[in-house]
Specification:
Layout (H helix, E strand, L loop, with lengths): L1 H10 L4 H20 L14 H16 L3 H9 L1 H11 E6 L4 E3 L7 E7 L2 E5 L16 E5 L4 E2 L12 E5 L3 E7 H8 L3 H24 L15 H6 L26
Antiparallel strand pairs: 1-8, 2-7, 3-6, 3-8, 4-5, 4-7
Helix pairs in contact: 3-5, 4-5, 4-7, 5-6
Length: 259
């Protein structure tokens, strides 16, 4: 198969640089699949009950996702809801060296956790809205290692990426789909209230960052604490949905969780 792929790339006049990336990724993927069997390779998995499959998937995803403090609390509040997040909202995506996970200016739909490999984030700081090059003195770069996350704001508000995330090596991410995460969360009152409280802090912090021109897809350095009274006042008792808690600084930051 490897020889066939080389022949295919040669006959399609694929550049040597791209061909090397393709061959490197295929080789990495092949070794990864040897170390970690795919579900489809194990026929007996089809005989498992739905509950057993949920628990198995949860044990695969949860160690990475629960590095985030919010998801650690989410899991301790409702193991059932966490299992549903892992099975219904989380997807695994492989990336080759140089692949772009997301680009600046693109509407976001998922939060990302780095599961394998290394990635580099380039935050947009140029007034034109373009991602700055590596040689620019104003460029802001952040390295992601296994267990790190980015684009968390996607879970709490409508978000447009303000930077570019690129794989530095063959990598794999766990993507938490925002819409599916919401569907799970609003159905479980054990996690809904803590999600409401946490979203209030995050949205307020995002608005504070926007005022200072410091919006980023990377995690915030300083959480914003909001009083219990204010948080509870923002919980819509007539509906089990999350609401928009902060003042809108940027037009793109409208409510994802409308009442």
């Amino acid at each position: 198969q490897t020889a066939m792929l080389r022949k295919y790339l040669h006959r399609r006049f694929i550049s040597s640089a791209l061909a090397m990336r393709i061959m490197s990724f295929v080789e990495w993927k092949r070794h990864a699949e040897v170390r970690e069997l795919k579900d489809s390779d194990v026929v007996l998995l089809n005989s498992l009950s739905e509950q057993l499959r949920i628990e198995m998937t949860q044990e695969i995803c949860q160690p990475t996702i629960c590095r985030h403090p919010f998801f650690r609390k989410y899991s301790s509040s409702s193991n059932v809801a966490m299992g549903r997040v892992c099975t219904q909202a989380v997807r695994r995506h492989p990336f080759s060296v140089g692949d772009v996970v997301f680009d600046a200016g693109v509407h976001a739909d998922s939060m990302f956790f780095l599961h394998l490999g290394h990635m580099l984030y380039n935050r947009v700081t140029d007034p034109s809205g373009l991602a700055l090059g590596e040689d620019s003195p104003e460029a802001s770069f952040s390295s992601l290692s296994v267990g790190d996350w980015c684009a968390e704001a996607t879970l709490w508000t409508t978000w447009v990426h303000v930077g570019t995330l690129r794989a530095q090596g063959n990598s794999e991410v766990l993507a938490v789909d925002a819409a599916r995460f919401l569907e799970v969360t609003i159905k479980d009152h054990n996690v809904l209230q803590s999600a409401v409280k946490y979203s209030a802090k995050i949205v307020q912090a995002l608005n504070d960052q926007a005022e200072m021109g410091e919006l980023s897809d990377m995690p915030m350095e300083r959480p914003v604490h909001i009083s219990e009274a204010r948080l509870m006042a923002n919980l819509d008792s007539g509906s089990s949905r999350l609401r928009w808690f902060g003042r809108s600084i940027r037009p793109s930051m409208r409510a994802l969780f409308s009442s």
